[in-house]
Design goal:
The complex is a heterodimer.
Chain A lengths: L29 H5 L1 H11 L3 E4 L5 E4 L2 H9 L4 E2 L5 H10 L19 H10 L4 H5 L2 H15 L4 E3 H6 L1 H11 L6 H13 L5 H24 L5 H6 L2 E2 L2 E2 L2 H15 L1 H16 L1 H9 L4 H11 L6 E4 L3 E3 L2 E3 L4 E4 L1 H4 L34 H18 L3 E3 L7 E2 L5 E2 L3 E4 L2
Parallel strand pairs in A: 2-10
Antiparallel strand pairs in A: 1-2, 3-7, 4-14, 5-6, 7-10, 8-9, 11-14, 12-13
Helix pairs in contact in A: 7-9, 7-18, 9-13, 11-13, 14-18, 16-18
Chain B lengths: L1 E4 L9 H5 L16 E3 L5 H10 L5 E4 L2
Antiparallel strand pairs in B: 1-2, 1-3
The chains are: A alpha+beta, B alpha+beta.
The complex binds protoporphyrin IX containing FE and iron/sulfur cluster.
Chain lengths: ~425, ~60
């Protein structure tokens, strides 16, 4: 992985008070690259609840639980799209006939009321009930991956387990050929190794993802199966039948939201377990506590940073913001906010009545949260049941990546055989 | 005891149902299906825990 370069400092705009400036480069902050959640904890402790960073072109960061919660549910002031729905439609309509349409990850790029049109067709497919049906399959996969590395006395956890697991599940659910897994995994890696934000380069990468799926998508149109692609072909949007473009928009969304997230969530969990043999012993003795463990992992190591765009000049929690400015939802800090969680740095699986917002809040609440929870629970259960006490390989120090999804680059585990 | 839920604000976390599927019934899409629940005797603690578990903070307990 290429070491990201700290972005240059930009000048503070006149409407930003000096007291609200705090230096955080969410892609390349040296503290993040060294220890992502160590840095998150520091930001949670010392930065203003709403602050402005002069990095990455200069932008707002909402870090208090209260600010993140309020903004996530205020879709009028905080939009998920850098440009309005109407502007976007105008651009698409102005393209010449047959020109490739820009890929717009759906439903995440749309605000209410358009958001529901694109979210509804997927809702049932990702409901808790629908996800429960996949449990046995997911468990079989977890067991297979763990048993494969077990005799080796160690593994590269990301490459061997936390990447193949969600990728395989995604391919099966979506209805893509599992035997082309390698190709998809390379694409995932390539996609997330990039830190640039040039819209044209992003489009080129998303286009590559969509192109790999194109054959399968077209094939399902005439030959429906029991998978998501077929379900989507059968959906309607504002009374119109789904088009190839609609399905490509979903494909790139689920690809980018469903893979990298779970990969990093699992890797962060593995690091914490590896550093805490006592917790491992407790979990081995009490597998029934696994879902509490999963929830506290999600809180203590919340790892996604969704962007918002200020929709109108406004005042938010006493701060003047201007239309078009980016406001990053710093979820890792929100879930480490001492005002919400006493002693936030303490890992305590018995916290009760203080739900985290690792899956976001408001209408964009993670559609895949039920699936992700099942994947995480099953993985932890099977790791505890099958592996002896494991630890980090002391010869291979951890390094982290920043961006919209934080996590370790690789986690080398060791155990005695 | 009653439970009142701001149903329109539900975003389908299903955390309430993870505490008690009996009290907090979901629709097929995983969103809360009801806006008022009479809590049967003996289930008061589950009701309170369910309310606290909602990440959207939209479940209210009305003690009688
Ligand atoms: C532990 C793993 C995961 C975490 C922490 C996570 C986190 C999030 C967060 C914070 C959001 C809200 C983004 C925003 O407010 O702009 C989100 C949205 C979303 N997630 Fe996840 N996610 C995870 C796994 C998944 C999986 C497995 C899938 C699907 C296969 C998925 C699909 C989606 C989709 C489609 C959205 C957009 C929903 C909308 O805009 O209505 N996620 N996720
Ligand atoms: S926990 Fe809250 S948001 Fe989630 S389903 Fe229950 S009521 Fe809805």
């Amino acid at each position: 992985m290429v070491q990201p370069v700290l972005s240059p400092l930009v000048e503070r705009p006149a409407h930003v008070p000096e007291a609200l400036v705090y230096d955080l480069d969410y892609y390349a902050d040296p503290g993040v690259l060294q220890d992502a959640h160590g840095r998150a904890l520091q930001v949670a402790k010392e930065a203003p609840g709403v602050f402005w960073t002069p990095r990455q072109g200069g932008h707002w960061v909402l870090r208090s639980h209260n600010a993140v919660f309020e903004a996530s549910r205020d879709t009028e002031r905080f939009s998920n799209a850098p440009i309005s729905f109407e502007q976007l439609q105008a651009i698409i309509e102005s393209l010449p006939e047959g020109a490739p349409k820009p890929l717009i990850p759906a439903p995440i790029t749309f605000d209410p009321p358009h958001h529901a049109v694109y979210r509804n067709p997927l809702q049932k497919a990702f409901s808790p009930k629908a996800m429960n049906v996949l449990k046995d399959n997911i468990r079989a996969l977890a067991v297979e991956l763990i048993e494969k590395v077990k005799p080796q006395g160690g593994c590269a956890f990301v490459k061997d387990i936390s990447e193949p697991m969600p990728v395989t599940i995604f391919l099966q659910m979506f209805g893509l050929p599992v035997d082309r897994q390698r190709e998809y995994r390379d694409l995932v890696e390539e996609h997330f190794a990039q830190t640039d934000k040039d819209p044209q380069l992003i489009q080129a990468r998303l286009r590559k993802v969509a192109d790999v799926m194109r054959d399968a998508i077209l094939e399902r149109k005439d030959n429906p199966q029991n998978d998501l692609i077929s379900l989507l072909w059968d959906s309607e949007f504002n009374g119109q039948k789904a088009t190839l473009h609609d399905i490509e928009n979903y494909a790139v969304m689920l690809f980018t939201a469903g893979l990298d997230t779970v990969v990093n969530g699992m890797a962060l969990g593995a690091v914490h377990l590896a550093k805490n043999p006592q917790l491992q012993a407790e979990m081995r003795a009490h597998p029934e506590k696994t879902s509490d463990l999963t929830e506290e992992m999600l809180r203590r190591y919340t790892f996604t940073l969704p962007p918002r765009f200020v929709a109108e000049d406004c005042e938010f929690q006493g701060v003047q913001m201007k239309k078009g400015e980016m406001a990053l939802l710093f979820l890792p800090g929100a879930d480490l906010d001492a005002a919400e969680y006493p002693n936030p740095e303490v890992f305590d699986a018995n916290r009760e009545g203080k739900p985290h917002i690792a899956f976001g809040a408001g209408p964009h609440r993670c559609l895949g949260s039920h699936l992700a929870r099942i994947e995480l629970n099953i993985l932890y259960e099977e790791m505890m049941a099958r592996l002896p006490e494991f630890r980090l390989d002391p010869d291979k120090p951890l390094t982290y990546h920043g961006g919209h999804v934080w996590g370790p680059n690789e986690v080398y585990l060791k155990w005695d055989v | 005891m009653k439970i009142r839920i701001d149903k329109d604000a539900c975003v389908g976390n299903a955390r309430c149902a993870a505490i008690s599927e009996v009290l907090f019934q979901l629709d097929d899409e995983g969103y809360i299906a009801v806006s008022e629940i009479d809590v049967p005797e003996g289930m008061e603690e589950l009701a309170r825990r369910g309310a606290r578990s909602c990440p959207e903070k939209i479940i209210e307990i009305i003690e009688e």
